[in-house]
Design a protein that fits this description.
This protein has a single domain, classed as Alpha-D-Glucose-1,6-Bisphosphate, Chain A, domain 4. The termini are far apart. It is of the alpha+beta class. It is globular and about 45 Å long. Strand 6 and strand 7 form a beta hairpin.
């Protein structure tokens, strides 16, 4: 076993003030609304899309219509979890080879009827080969925290007008 095969996954979690069903719906149907604008592969991102089925694409569409895959949906269990391959390589550029893609797993757990724990894990990082440790180091920093903070903000109840 090489050193990269021993890389532990990176997990980040956030509690959100809504049901598991609402969290899953916003997470998967409205990713453009909450995905950090700084996390992009295209120059001018217009949308982030999850195709809602195993084998579906997880991709970014630019304003000019260009699409760049971030991965493929590997697990799709509504209101429970999704897992995608992560087609991102060195310097966080798009890669084409799924054999070199780690996995992103998102798990939703009901804490109360209107309180959900959303956990995002970057797993199987060893698949990135020689750049795996570098990618893990970056992921273990603030980036997944920023993503979850944006999701949590999108799930906050609307403020009543004064």
């Amino acid at each position: 076993m090489t050193g990269t095969e021993q890389l532990p996954p990176v997990w980040k979690s956030v509690e959100v003030p809504c049901s598991v069903q609402r969290a899953f719906a916003v997470l998967t149907r409205e990713p453009t609304r909450w995905w950090p604008t700084s996390h992009r592969i295209t120059v001018e991102r217009e949308a982030v899309v999850f195709e809602p089925f195993v084998g579906g694409r997880w991709y970014e569409r630019a304003a000019d219509g260009t699409e760049r895959d971030w991965g493929r949906v590997l697990v799709w269990e509504p209101d429970r979890q999704i897992m995608m391959s992560w087609l991102v390589g060195d310097d966080f550029t798009s890669i084409e080879d799924d054999a070199l893609a780690s996995r992103v797993r998102i798990v939703l757990s009901a804490l109360e009827p209107e309180r959900t724990l959303v956990s995002i894990g970057h797993v199987d990082l060893h698949r990135h080969g020689p750049i795996a440790a570098k990618i893990r180091a970056v992921l273990d920093g603030p980036s997944p925290g920023e993503t979850l903070a944006c999701l949590a903000a999108a799930l906050e109840p609307a403020q009543a007008p004064r």
